[in-house]
Amino acid sequence: MKKKNLIKRFIPYYKPHLKLFITDMLCAFIISVFNLVYPYLTKEIINVYVPQKLLYYMLAGFGSVLVLYAVKAGLNFVLQYWGHLVGVRIQADMRKQLFGHLQKLPFSYFDENKTGVIMSRLTNDLFEISELAHHGPEDVFLSIITIVGAFIMLATINLYLVLIVFACVPVIVVFAVVLRKRMKKVFAEVRVAQAEINADIESAVSGMRVSRAYGAESHECEKFDKGNAAFVAAKSKQYKVMGQFFSSMNFFMDFLYFAVLLAGGLFLYYNKIDEGEFTAFLLYITTLIAPIRTLVSIFEQIQDGMTGFKRFCDIMDVPPETECEDAVKPEKIKGEIVFDNVTFGYGGENGRKVISGFSMKIPAGKTIALVGPSGGGKTTVCHLIPRFYEAEAGEITLDGYPLQKLDRSVLRKNIGIVQQDVFLFNGTIRENIAYGDFSASEEQIIEAAKRANIHDYIVSLPQGYDTNVGERGIKLSGGQKQRVSIARAFLKNPPVLILDEATSALDNATEMLIQDALFRLSEGRTTLVVAHRLSTVKNADEIIVVTSDGIAERGSHAQLMEKGGMYRELYEYQLKSV
Fold this sequence. Notes:
- This protein has 19 helices and ten strands.
- The chain has helices at 3-10, 18-49, 55-102, 107-112, 115-157, 159-166, 169-206, 208-213, 217-269, 275-316, 378-384, 408-413, 429-433, 442-451, 455-459, 478-492, 508-522, 557-563, 566-577, and strands at 337-345, 353-362, 367-371, 393-398, 401-402, 415-418, 496-500, 526-530, 542-547, 550-555.
- A hairpin with a 2-residue loop joins β4 and β5.
- The mean pLDDT is 80.
């Protein structure tokens, strides 16, 4: 993306904070004007007030300088406080926008991008953008005003001397532009390396128990060392280019001051200027060099900020889940689901097809079970119904409506999901159950917990429903997490249920209780059950045996047992294993 387009996209973020931003710029302008007054007063003191013994005017001049310094201190406070606040608020706006956009991205995006990389863009990148949002316009504006003002004031002293000094400026600009291209590439490499190491840390911390259980600490350290080394290498390249840039810029600044001393000394020697003008000239050059140094030092911040903003735009440009323009919002869902010759594969058209030509009908209020070996696409079927992924071919309908024609929020509101891999948010047990219905009362939450056979355990805890479950529910056992997840489904009370290995993490005694609860919950609802433990699906209205080649068998438990095919073999094998 071109820099011009990035700036065009960046500017609108100032609009909600325009008054604060204008105040910041006004303060910067006044400070830059104040910086130009001091050399002028110095010249007047040396050339007029002292030679003519004008003590009153000299003291008034000193008093004016002191007042200016006091006012300048107040203005600098505004710059530091309110100026930074502008950047923080813009950062908050962008983070909110980015987080909201992430909520709408297709699941395939998260399949292809590491969590740590996404977190890096939400934190590190946006921080750099915040710094740029504040310091960028403020420092550039202040520097330009100071440079232009200093040039005008210098021109009133001696125009020829000014032209000699400013002959050095084009050299500085050309050199900065040449190195800028190299810096841009290196800064982008650093961002990638930083995001990767963040992703490795996030993964390592999340999987700490697994790595220690398998004695893989050294392996994790080796992986981290590789990422760390890549980050150090990228940073080394960055600092090398920065070293070349800043050392060269500092040399040019020193040379500029040297040129002033040389040329100004010669002009003073030949009486082209007087002592006061020479002193003022030196002070104005010092005033001039300061903003040039600021522009040089802010260059790194501009590169960091624009690189971060580009990465921000990369995510914002990922198309969100599409919604049909005339999406249907049925008032009531009965729950009849039909798969008609559906094909889907992860990785797009070139990926391996998980299901191909898959057809299935789940009548409203009936329970259908999908069983069979892993890799047959059972969980994929579950993901297609709430439109976590879109079918590549064929059609899926709910109550006769193609899923693409249904409003996503309405569709997902009417589907309850209990998965094998339970995810609990870092919060209280009450908050996690309430995900089923955030408007539910305390009594409804407790009733859902009772029906999921988790209430007695919850009230035995010191903090009861206010107990924090920890990150990913780490403070609860597998069975307890599963029952909290089931309580969500009870609370949601949807017409369609998807139970993907819903009782896989439960012990036998608890499983019997939960199976009974799920059976009662399934009554009158359309239920799709995915199970490897065939004893849990004997009462399903229809059992479909799914393999990597498609549907192998279908029928009731009795019919499939009588048929003597794959289902019977799997069932009898599991009985022997018990």
